[in-house]
Amino acid sequence: INKMATNLYSHSIFPPPRQNKDFLELKQFFKKNGKIKDFPAHESKAHSVDWNSDGRKVASGSTDKTVSVFSLDRYGLTRVHNYKGHSDHVDQLCWHPSHPEYLVSASEDKTIRIWDARVGHKCAQCISTKGDNINICWSPDGNTIAVGNKEDLITWIDTRNYKTKSEMHFNYEVNEISWNNTSEYFFLTNGNGCIVILSFPELKVMETLQAHSSNCISLEFDSQGRYFATGSADALASLWDLEELVCVRSFPRLFWPVRTLSFSFDGKLLAMGSEDHHVDIALVETGEEVCKVPCNASTFCVAWHPNKYLLAFVSDDKDRHERDAGTVRLFGIPE
């Protein structure tokens, strides 16, 4: 039967399916730009990595209680700051959505700290919170920071006066948190496999979507405003239509919980990281695998550059003495 099918295709009775043009072009791009480079960042494992709005800087947070900031040049990354001030692990950080010099870090020391990358010695603002902070995000309009802690309390902080605007405790495990691109709705993923959508700033539950069969861990929006993606302990990543709130497709190639996601600047690619020893990069429109980025350990965080096919990621990698390496890695460098 396979031989017959081959003959039919070869005689053009049934022409073979056409491959997506973007898929072919991106496959070719990463054949020429598939190099990975490592950049020392911390004394122990890095948990978080993120690009600033203009793509000239990348920051990482670590269990060594520090925040490192790098500048990007033609040769790779150069570390320009290593901020100290937190007294416990830095679990997550993010940059201001439009100001390229401001970033905020969330720590288990019950504070969040805002840093000005133009200043190299101390934080611009330290804000005390009620618990051990594990996730953080900045609203797209820049006016609010949301921080979540281990007790499933989310606090919304007004960045114009650094005071608490509101807070809400949830009776289930809260994982990732994020606004949609217009700051009108606030999304969170939870331990029941659901996506919960709140109006903002009213914080009324608008929708609860059963997205996965087990713990829904990660959440990411594309910059085009078309889709968002979720990752789960069921080892699936799912793509959702933002307007219709329906699942468009799933990405089933990973074997371990999908703990981190990132869309490319143009929304064409989705990077997915897990305990699998590679990062899966898929074409969003078809779900096809464009490439695999090899890793030596579990991946904690992935982040696409805001205007290039350049992926920063951090993982549970070790040095030659089997100590935490604390490196930031870049994929997409010319061979």
Helix count, per DSSP? 2
Share of β-strand residues? over 45%
Q: Give average pLDDT, whole number.
A: 93
General form: globular
Structural class: mainly beta
For the termini, the CA-CA separation is 42 Å
**What is Rg?**
20 Å
Question: Would you mind describing this structure in some detail?
Answer:
- The chain starts with a helix and ends with a strand.
- The strands form seven sheets. Strands 1-28-27-26 form a four-stranded antiparallel sheet, with no helix packed on it. It has a four-stranded antiparallel sheet with strand order 2-3-4-5, with no helix packed on it. A four-stranded antiparallel sheet has the order 6-7-8-9, with no helix packed on it.
- The longest helix has 12 residues.
- The chain is mainly beta and 335 residues long.
- A hairpin with a 3-residue loop joins strand 7 and strand 8.
- It is 6% helix and 50% strand.
- It has two helices and 28 strands.
- The relative contact order is 0.14.
Note the topology.
Elements (H helix, E strand, L loop, with lengths): L1 H9 L10 H12 L2 E6 L5 E6 L5 E6 L4 E7 L2 E8 L6 E6 L6 E6 L3 E6 L8 E4 L4 E6 L5 E6 L3 E6 L4 E7 L4 E6 L5 E6 L3 E6 L5 E6 L5 E6 L5 E6 L4 E5 L4 E6 L8 E4 L5 E5 L4 E6 L5 E6 L4 E6 L6 E5 L11 E7 L2
Antiparallel strand pairs: 1-28, 2-3, 3-4, 4-5, 6-7, 7-8, 8-9, 10-11, 11-12, 12-13, 14-15, 15-16, 16-17, 18-19, 19-20, 20-21, 22-23, 23-24, 24-25, 26-27, 27-28
